[in-house]
């Protein structure tokens, strides 16, 4: 399985679908399905039974997964960018960098 261009904690922008243009933080990534859950994006209503967290039950709104092809990472300057990989000169490890600005992404 190839490495993905997004990680948990990245700030991303949605580039396709009903939530196009929205930005948020990645809460989780499912590598096998190539989907990510982004904070405040792709909100769905879920009917829940009464439980310890929600004693009355009812309808709650929560984020649903978005395919990672519909997401672009936002660099520190706030620009959506493509991601490249290169070796770090000091450590020799592979790091992600912004193709637009050339800076390393955390």
* Low-confidence regions: none
Task: Report the mean per-residue pLDDT as an integer.
Answer: 94
Continuous helix count: 0
Strand content: 35-45%
Strand order of the largest sheet: 6-3-2-1-7-8
Give the termini distance in whole angstroms. Answer: 23 Å
Task: Give the overall shape, derived from the CA principal axes.
Answer: elongated
By CATH, the topology of the domain at 11-77 is SH3 type barrels
Please identify the structural class as seen in this structure. Answer: mainly beta
Order of helices and strands: EEEEEEEEEE
CATH class of the domain at 11-77 reads: Mainly Beta
Largest sheet: 6 strands, antiparallel
Radius of gyration: 17 Å
Fold blueprint:
Blueprint: E1 11-14, E2 23-30, E3 35-38, E4 43-48, E5 58-63, E6 66-67, E7 71-74, E8 80-81, E9 83-87, E10 94-98
Antiparallel strand pairs: 1-2, 1-7, 2-3, 3-6, 4-5, 7-8, 9-10
Explain what the structure shows:
There is one protein chain. The protein is mostly beta strands and 106 residues long. The protein has a domain at 11-77: SH3 type barrels, CATH 2.30.30. Helices cover 0% and strands 43% of the residues. The protein contains no helices and ten strands. The chain has strands at 11-14, 23-30, 35-38, 43-48, 58-63, 66-67, 71-74, 80-81, 83-87, 94-98. The chain has a six-stranded antiparallel sheet with strand order 6-3-2-1-7-8, with no helix packed on it. A two-stranded antiparallel ribbon has the order 4-5. Strands 9-10 form a two-stranded antiparallel ribbon. The model has no long low-confidence stretch (mean pLDDT 94).
């Amino acid at each position: 399985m190839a490495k993905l261009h997004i990680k948990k904690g990245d700030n991303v922008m949605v580039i396709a679908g009903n939530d196009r243009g929205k930005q948020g933080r990645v809460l989780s990534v499912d590598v096998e399905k190539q989907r990510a859950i982004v904070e405040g994006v792709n909100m769905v209503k879920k009917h829940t039974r009464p439980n310890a967290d929600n004693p009355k039950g009812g309808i709650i709104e929560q984020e649903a997964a978005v395919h990672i092809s519909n997401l672009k990472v936002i660099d520190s300057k706030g620009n959506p960018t493509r991601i490249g990989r290169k070796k770090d000169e000091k450590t020799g490890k592979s790091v992600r960098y912004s193709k637009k600005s050339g800076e390393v992404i955390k």
